[in-house]
Amino acid sequence: MRVDPITLEVIRNRLIAASRDIRRTVERAAYSPVLYEVVDFSCGVLDSEANLLAETPGLPIFLANLSDAVKATYETIGREQLQPGDIILCNDPYNGGGTHCPDIVVLGPAFVANEIRGWAAFRGHTVDMGGIYPGGWYSNTTEVFQEGFRLPPVKLVVAGKPNEDVFRLIRANTRVPDAVLGDIRAMIAAVRTGSSRLAEIVNRYGIDQALAAFHEILDQGERMSRAAIRRIPNGVYSAEAILDGDGNDDAPLDEDVRLVVKVTVAEEEMIIDFTGTDRQCRGPMNVPLPSTISSARYGFKVVTTPDLPNNEGFFRPLTVIAPKGTLLNPVFPAATAMWPTPTTTIPDLILKALSPAIPERVRAGHFGDSMADFIYGTDPRSGRYYVCAEPDGGGYGGMPNEDGASALFSMDLGDTYNVPAEVAEVRYPWRVERLELIQDSGGPGKFRGGLGVRRDYRILNHKAGLTVTTDRVLRTPPWGLFGGKAGKSNITVVFRGNGSQERWRKVSNLPLEPGEVVSFQTGGGGGYGPPLEREPSRVLQDVINGYVSPAKAREEYGVVLNGEGQLDLAATEELRKRMSSAGAA
Amino acid sequence: MYRLSTDVGGTFTDGVLLNENTGECRVSKVLTTPQDPAIGTVEAMDRFGVPLAEVEFLVHGTTVVINALIEGKGAKTGLVTTKGFRDVLEIGRGNRTEMYDALYRKPVPLVPRYLRLEVEERVGPGGEILTPLREADVLQVIEFLRSQGVESVAVCLLNAYANPKHEEDIGELLREHWPEVTVSLSHKITRRFYEYERTSTAVQNAYVMPRVRRYLENLDRQVEGRGFKRNLQIMQSNGGIMASVVAREIPIAMVESGPAAGAMGAAHLARMSGYENVISYDMGGTTAKTALIRRGLPETTDQYLVEGRPILLPVVDLREIGAGGGSIAWVDEAGALHVGPQSAGAEPGPACYLRGGVAPTVTDANLHLGILNPDYFLGGEMQVSPQAAHAALRQIAQIFEMSVDETALGVIRIVNTHMAGLLQSMTIKRGYDPREFVLVAFGGAGPIHAAAIARELNIPTVIVPPSPGTFSAWGMLMADLRHDLVRTYFAPMEEASPAAINAIFRELQAQLLDLFAHESVAERDVVVYHSFGLRYAGQEHTLDVEAPLEYAESDRENIERRFDDLHLKIYGHNAPEEPKEIVSLKLVGVGTVTKPSLLKLPRGKRTPGRSAMLGQRKVYRNGGRHVDFLLYRRAKLLAGNVIPGPAIIEEPTATTVVEDDQVCSVDAYGNLVISTKEAGQ
Fold first, then answer.
1. CA B503 – CA B511 distance, rounded (Å)
2. Is residue A34 over pLDDT 60?
């Protein structure tokens, strides 16, 4: 059946509106800040064969995961066992979850004329789904059993009636049942809205016409992608990065892991091949295959059709290869708590690989880690237990004509919001002592990398626990491109009561005493182009604004300022000449 | 005596003059003068030829603030912050709105880093002073900012929402040591938490302040020179008005004054006709804007973004999409048809304007279909070419092997879907059913599409006011003075102390009366509403629940129940057993302005008179047939006239469509009221 172009456009818009309504419902009704302020979620509507029809932006790194949850539901529960009014939940990294235990997917079928015509799905991070410590991110696990309570696809709601058994199971297995169940209730409401919208569309335009429209919408996505791939020169492009160990607390660096990506562009198809990436590791840095595919799709999207809405059709011209048993396609029960760490680097690595092909559309490396931290304890003001999970922003790489952005969340995150200091002080027993950009953290370049952020919390009147999982510190700082230099790396510093300082990359459940300060310091972006080509007046502006110190202006950029802080152009020219001949020699 | 309003828009500045004795309204339209909008404003007033001494109520809405923000033409501004926090303005919230854009850029801070300076001081979240303000730091900051040629200073200290003492102290020092600089203290604008949003608000306020002051002083002088003796009133984004003396201190409150006025006009109009729940729908050349009015007041939202920068003030919750008469129909690389958001605007304009535009637009489609009359564009003042519209639409028709008629109809269907989606998401977001609302349609293009959109959403009634093209200016004449005061206050509901709450409300009340005193509003004309911002413990977002003016422990249960009900309505679920907490106390003060009585139309017969009838025109409709629409001239319609659809009603700046299953009646004030035909009509 052919759908006329007008009805097609009308249906497309209705699908986008349906997925927008899913997000809107959760956003306003969720319990936990990690959902509504960090926007750690994604949602969309899918057809009956698990093809994403429309999504509403949340976390870009979940691009393939909704589809995987629908497929897992069919395999685990069985298509014929589903009925109208059912709502499914899953979080098993190896069966429908695709990430790590705290991420849950809630999804519901849209039935029309006794058949499933599509799905509405929502994936979001819950504050706690059990596991050895609160929060669900660990840097000391070796198998998924340690990481939390796993549910394969199960019916949370059966034909419109809550399945109280499942609610009780969840309640019994999380440290913060009210918050988690509150969030789940919000997700149920959202999925109901989405699936009824989808059913309305099918009813209104008729099953045949609606399904034909779904097909055509996917086909159009495919055509857009193919046209975009044609704009990238054919070739084989590769890049690699090494992460700091296997994900365990300060694991020896000889256990570091290598990510290798090879991008093949051939006319209107692309292959992203991770062959050569290290074997799955003992620590929690393994990435379940659906998330590997998601992060490859993310990189693909960025270089092909970044400003168009998404659907499954866009990804048909893309093949992703990740050999089984490797870090990016691990075998059960490998630990996956830190799956976001490699997946943050993958899209950036795809940009790096393609930089010779499309230099005008890429930037240098970003700080490369979500910088998630967890602080928990008992609030002395209320006697209640609290868990705070939050990521932090850092610097992005310099761009073809502009400096990189400062203080943005890493690539795996998207329209995510930080927790304001004023909110943190009300909600948690801490004092926020600093929220500032870190001087000289941006990688030098003709276009400088953006700056990282320093955020200091003083722990007040109680003992707290700290878990941090920072990577991209030692082996692969944020890289420069085309002669630009690397940005400064991420680090977490603890200022102890006795005056000592500790520098941490990964640590689980580190005790913090009353009055001690934890300082999260994110890295800067890499530079783009040689720093000696940066206009001296821009370097001067950077010094005036304190983004760059006078010492680094001289050392890295060859820019000399006189006693009044003005440009000494003659001295600058001479110094730059000397530096470039030294560099050439 | 007269009432007069002026509304500066992107292309035109509109004026409305209301004669209080007769109730008669006159309108004027002049070109906007972007270099100094006051020139056009004064011209729009002068057009009426009425001495301003005879005007007792003068309201003005202007784009001067939003333009300064969008064009980046504000003052050189400095910022004073708490030690450790000068980068809050640049760090922002860390989010990327365009997540697949490798070259994403953040909004550039309006204050460069070297003009953001820190002072030693610290207030705790409970308002306790942890570190006293070091005056020497402030003096140093003043000296530096002055040496840098700064014209305006914003001050935002951490936790100042809980205790503004140090901001006030800095304000004092600035007044004493640097009296000529304009100052914006964050707590004077809002006492809500979220330091980035509050800083951003104070900075934008400071950034536009010198320019707005010059503008308003000039305008005040001009109207005084023309004999005006009262307070000039300024339209605010929250749908209320404020005296220009107050507007000089919080110019950021007028950022969306024009669109808010349209929503207020819709609210008033519907109230006059006995409706309380209204969707206002304003469609012009480039965008469509919509707002919800419940029980006579527009819904507001607590935050607004301009160029990606937040403003933490209540603003009429306007939703906007790029769908207007100038929206362009185009085909993408994959062969899919889209309409908008790109617009041909006024220049080059739709293809039928013959001003160089070749792309087919919504206006071209309406002209081709026969909805718009080629001989009566702008009342016949403007030439349009149906041939050019046809040629433009044919480009699309050929791609899809469709007829030009079908293509034109398709363009309209798509744009109507966009707008229906906008209206639906607007009502659904709030948990309402569009069928409980009336649609008030205005703007040049609103009345063309309103009937079809209403039909799509099962909205039973559409109202089209007289002169829809200058309706926002009319709305200003119907606005009341309004101030929204908010205080962040945390307490679990069960522990909330009525004494503490009532004390805060008393403080807010005093602040309110102080503002109104500045505006010469008598206390007896002030109506006050209290509400609590409530949530379940642990939630972040709050809902506003109305509270009694004097809160007592015995009110608690009732308020909690209303919150549970509202939560259920808006989100589809609730948890009555969960503990609730108060996050903010809000006071809305309305200084009521006596509303003028409006001129009523003479009563006519049920069937419009012959002079109103213009014959008929064939219009292409669904199913490939041409339908005869009866044509009417609006100026000749009388109260009580009833026009069965399909019909088209023409006036110089707008065209109203009545669909075949609808009927339109003219009410006492000349509004067109379109409703679904009852059986047998």
1. 12
2. no
pLDDT in tens, A502-549: 999 988 889 999 999 999 999 999 999 999 999 999 999 999 999 999
Burial of A113 (0-12, 13-18, 19+ CB in 10 A): exposed
- Interface contact flag, B92 A426, Cβ < 8 Å: no
On whether any CB of chain B is under 8 Å from the CB of A13, the answer is yes
Residue B571 predicted with pLDDT over 60: yes
d(C-alpha A210, C-alpha A216), whole Å: 10
In the predicted model, is pLDDT for residue A585 greater than 60?
no
Segment (H or E) for B628? strand B625-633
Interval B661-671: pLDDT, tens: 999 999 999 99
In whole angstroms, give the CA distance from residue B280 to residue B459.
Answer: 12
Nearest to residue A170, comparing CAs of A124, A122, A129?
Answer: A129
The set of residues, in sequence order, having a beta carbon less than 8 Å from that of B541 and lying 6+ positions away, is A27, A28, A29, A36, B535
Phi/psi at B333 (5° precision): -60, -30
Return d(Cα B25, Cα B15) in angstroms, integer. 10
CA angle A31, A34, A37 (to 5 degrees): 90
Secondary structure (DSSP) of A172-224: HH-S-HHHHHHHHHHHHHHHHHHHHHHHHHHHHH-HHHHHHHHHHHHHHHHHH
A258: its two tokens: 């290598």
Residues B65/B260, Cβ–Cβ less than 8 Å: no
- The residues facing B253 across adjacent strands are none
- Return the residue of B nearest to A406 by Cα: B91
**Pairing assessment for the beta strands A87-90 and B304-306 based on DSSP bridges:** unpaired
For chain A, helix, strand, coil in percent to 5 are: 35, 25, 40
3-state SS class at A229? helix
Interface contact B538-A420, CB threshold 8 A? no
Sequence-distant (≥ 6) Cβ neighbours of residue B248 within 8 angstroms: B209, B212, B213, B216
Mark yes or no for CB contact B336/A12 under 8 Å: yes
Determine the Cα–Cα distance for residues B636 and A502; give it in Å rounded to an integer: 84
Q: What is the ipTM of this complex?
A: 0.92
Listed by number, the residues of chain B in 339-368 with a beta carbon closer than 8 Å to a beta carbon of chain A are: 339
| Residue among A10, A27, A414 whose CB faces B99 most closely | A414
B118 φ, ψ (degrees, to nearest 5): -110, 150
Name the residue among A285, A351, A286 with its Cα closest to residue A505: A285
pLDDT in tens, B425-444: 777 666 778 888 999 999 98
Handedness of CA B185, B187, B189, B194 (dihedral sign): positive
| Rounded Cα gap, residues B227 and B445, in angstroms | 37
What does the buried/exposed string (b/e) look like for B237-275 if buried means 16 or more CB atoms within 10 Å of the residue's CB?
bbbbbbbbbbbbbbbbbbbbbbbbbbbbbbbbbbbbbeb
Pick the residue from chain B with its C-alpha nearest to A11. Answer: B417
Q: Which residues contact A165 (CB under 8 A, 6 or more apart)?
A: none
Q: Hunting for tokens 């608000």 — which residue is that?
A: B201
Contacts of A421 in chain B (CB under 8 A): 85, 88, 158, 195
Q: Decide if B66 contacts B306 (C-beta within 8 A).
A: yes
Beta carbon pairs, A and B, within 8 Å: 221
Amino acid identity at A388: C
CB contact under 8 A, B195 and A421: yes
Contact with chain A for residue B536, Cβ under 8 A: yes
pLDDT digits (tens, 9 = 90+) for A45-97: 999 999 999 988 777 777 778 999 999 999 999 999 999 999 999 999 999 98
The helix (run of H) or strand (run of E) holding residue A122 is: strand A115-125
Instruction: Please give the helix or strand (H or E) that residue A465 lies within, else none.
Output: strand A464-469
Instruction: Give, to the nearest 10 degrees, the angle between helix A207-229 and helix A289-304.
Output: 70
